[in-house]
Amino acid sequence: MNRRAFVALVRKDLVLELRGSEVVLAMVTFVVASFVLFRFGLGGGRTAGGTRAATGLLWVAIVFTAMLALARTFAREREHAIWDGLLAAPIDRALIWLARSCSTFVFLVAVQVVALPAFWLFFLQDGPAPAYGVLVAAALLADVGIAALGSLVAGLASAGRAREVLLPVLYLPFAIPLVLGAVSATTGTIPPQTSGLHTLERLGYLALYDTVFVLFGWGLFEFVVED
Amino acid sequence: MRDRTTAARLDRATCAALVTAVLMPVALGLIFFYVPNDADQGFSQRIFYFHVPIAMTTYALFAWGALNAARYLWTGDLSLDLRSYVPMHLGVIFGTLTLVTGSFWAKVSWGTWWYWGSTELNTFLIIFLFYCAYFMLRFSVDPGEKRARYSAVYALLGVGLIPISVLAVHLGQDVIHPITFTDHGAQMDGSMLFTFLMALAAMLSLAVAMYLVELRGKRLDEQVTRLRRLAEGTR
Amino acid sequence: MRRFGERAALAGVDLHVGEGEFVLVTGPNGAGKTTLLRVLATVLRPSEGAVSVGGHELPRAADKARPRIGYVAHGPLTYPGLTARENLELYAALYGVSGDLVAPALDRVGLDDRGRDPVSEFSRGMSQRLALARACLHGPSLLLLDEPTAGLDADGRDLLREVLAEPGRTVIVSTHEPAWFEGLATSEVPIRAGRVAA
User: Fold this and answer.
1) Rounded to an integer, what distance in angstroms lies between the CA atom of residue A23 and that of residue A46?
2) What is the pTM of this model?
3) What DSSP element (H or E) covers B188?
4) Of A145-154, A159-168, C111-120, which has the strongest mean pLDDT?
5) What rounded mean pLDDT belongs to chain B?
6) Would you state the pLDDT for residue B177?
7) How high is the pLDDT of residue B4?
8) Are the beta carbons of C6 and B145 separated by less than 8 Å?
9) Looking at the complex, does the CB of residue C71 fall below 8 Å from at least one CB of chain A?
10) Which residue stretches of chain B are H helix?
11) Which pLDDT belongs to residue B187?
12) Are residues C137 and C91 in contact, defined by beta-carbon separation less than 8 angstroms?
């Protein structure tokens, strides 16, 4: 793998985001606003359903927030017609996908650094909380899956009309099993707890999800990227 | 030469239609008159003989569509695009039927119009959503090589989705679903198994017939469009 | 042959360009000039037919052909949010050439004092110059230029002429101003409605 090209592409995404934050700040705002909405929607005082329901909702919020990142994924290349430059270069097309997945992963993690503590603040203070280690592990695993598959699907969605609507439609069926796995993993750690094996199985499932879709992304991206 | 292949295709579609015309009434007859009532659930359990074959046919259609999608990406032969799209299209139709019959089965078996504890129903729901998304993708790209490529990529992603969903739904909830096929073979007795297999054969035959007919129809559409364009070009 | 959707943008272009030649591709808008260049740049796959660049057949051997091709497109193919220098460094990494080539490349096109400015602040003429620097950075043996004279001021045009006059390269230029390339071009290929007009 062309490591220098890969590093250059990832650095390019990170530098551009640092300079003119298009995505991360919007995502942070969005996710915190979602939490507020959920809190009020579930009933102000004691959250209806308790921390179990809230933890489930966390994953919904994470997926929807990720949509924002995915929607902007290849926007710059599209808006400024830069694709031809990347396509003409002697690099593996899959490398473009890999670099983009990595930078998306970084953005997702950056948002969660704010989102998870906010979540704790809003929801986990009254009632039994899930194990934080599992929560963080599940979040990281989910981020890999979202970034990998999302970058591929973002490429698909950018081709057609109504791409802002198309991306969520194309992506969400794949988010369902991911959320199922993550919810099961994290709510299982809320007392009365299930076994450690139960949690491990579900975290393992998330890892399997990631592996499957990383392989798909790597293999299929070149079919997506040409005109 | 073209006449011969068109004629041959016509033949296959007609053949399949004839086979279906035979199998379907036989299967219906078996379902309603031959098979004895189920011990627990009575007459309405017969919905099983519709629901499961239709579900299996949907999966078969999907597999066929995905296979042709992979072949298209491998060879670039544009005729495979239609042969991938038509099964997916039929899959939506059969999928809708699966969900409807599934809903009836839930009512029969568990008393509610949908049952969230069923692995099979829930996996199917996810797959169905995927199918709908496939169509959104197809409608949003202009016809041509790009649309074929993108549809094929998405269809293949769906192949990954199925086992992932099955596993997720399994891990995600307690599984309370009557398991009819065990390791030792079907738990149904002889007459039930026979009826089930006939129903499955009838559904598959119906799917094949619809596939061939729709394929022929779409190919003719394409030819007409091409001819029209040629005519306009020379005017 | 290249189809977009149902429309054939290029059909029946039979083109042979020898090494060291300087070919002008002319024709009205929409004739297919850009499509032709994009196919040659390995950015577009031909729908039918055979394309071969430098002995490498596309699309199969495209990655062998790419290091030898420099492509100046309609747009500058640079990221507005990055500086000129950063853009060239990115492309240097993509093409596997040393980052030390960036400064001389900027110098060559007269942008050495603007290297640290974001490209979003560049005028059209400056962007074109940067595009030229980008395309030549890795020392390609084939240069493809899509209407390179558009938007260039007098100094820019002189620079372009200098760069194009450099020996040892095959050049294919699509243009509306064939007369300007007098003295440089060795042949002209007119394209009309996707075909070579005889």
Assistant:
1) 33
2) 0.86
3) none
4) A145-154
5) 81
6) 38
7) 55
8) no
9) yes
10) 2-29, 48-75, 79-110, 119-140, 145-172, 190-234
11) 57
12) yes
- In single-letter form, the type of residue at position C59 comes to P
The winner for highest mean pLDDT among A53-62, A106-115, A187-196 is A106-115
Å from A108 to nearest chain B CA? 22
- Per the structure, the complete domain to which residue A96 belongs is given by 3-225
* Least confident interval from B176-180, C124-128, C191-195: B176-180
Q: How many CA atoms does the CB half-sphere of A79 hold within 13 Å?
A: 9
Per-residue pLDDT reduced to its tens digit, B39-77: 666 677 778 888 888 988 999 999 999 999 999 998 888
Does the pLDDT at position C4 exceed 70? no
- Please say whether the beta carbons of A135 and A183 come within 8 A: no
d(CA A28, CA A112) in angstroms, rounded, equals 8
Least confident of A44-58, A133-147, B112-126, B194-208: A44-58
* B22 C-beta neighbours (distance < 10 Å), count: 11
ipTM for the predicted complex comes to 0.88
User: Which fold would CATH assign to domain C2-81+124-196?
Assistant: Rossmann fold (3.40.50)
User: What span, in angstroms and rounded, lies between the C-alpha atoms of B221 and B227?
Assistant: 10
Is the pLDDT confidence value at A152 over 80?
yes
Residue C125 CA neighbour count, 13 Å, CB half: 11
CA distance C106 to C83: 12
Total count of domains within chain A: 1
CA–CA distance, B141 with B146 (Å, rounded to integer): 8
Residues A68 and A164: their CA atoms lie apart, in Å, by 10
| CB of A179 closer than 8 Å to CB of A63 | yes
User: Do the domain assignments include residue B54?
Assistant: yes
Q: What angle do CA C125, C126, C130 make, to 5 degrees?
A: 120
Q: Would you tell me the crossing angle of helices A132-157 and A163-187 to the nearest 10 degrees?
A: 160
Give the distance from residue B75's alpha carbon to the nearest chain C alpha carbon, in angstroms: 13
Separation of alpha carbons C9 and C33, rounded Å:
9
The DSSP-derived string for C35-77 is HHHHHHTTSS--SSS-EEETTEEETTTHHHHGGGEEEE-SS--
Residue whose token pair is 């995905």: B66
How far, in whole angstroms, is CA B234 from its chain's centroid? Answer: 42
| CB atoms C6 and B229 under 8 Å | yes
pLDDT cut 70: percent of chain B above it: 85
pLDDT tops 80 at residue C195: no
B198 - beta bridge partners? none
How far apart are the C-alpha atoms of A140 and A147, rounded to whole Å?
A: 11
Residue of C63, C77, C134 to mutate when probing chain A, most A C-beta within 10 A: C77
Q: How high is the pLDDT of residue B235?
A: 54
What is the predicted pLDDT for the residue at A47?
61
Q: How many domains does chain B have?
A: 1
Asked whether residue B45 is assigned to any structural domain, the reply reads yes
What DSSP line would sit under B214-230, residue for residue? HHHHHHHHHHHHHHHHH
Å between C159 CA and nearest CA of chain B: 39
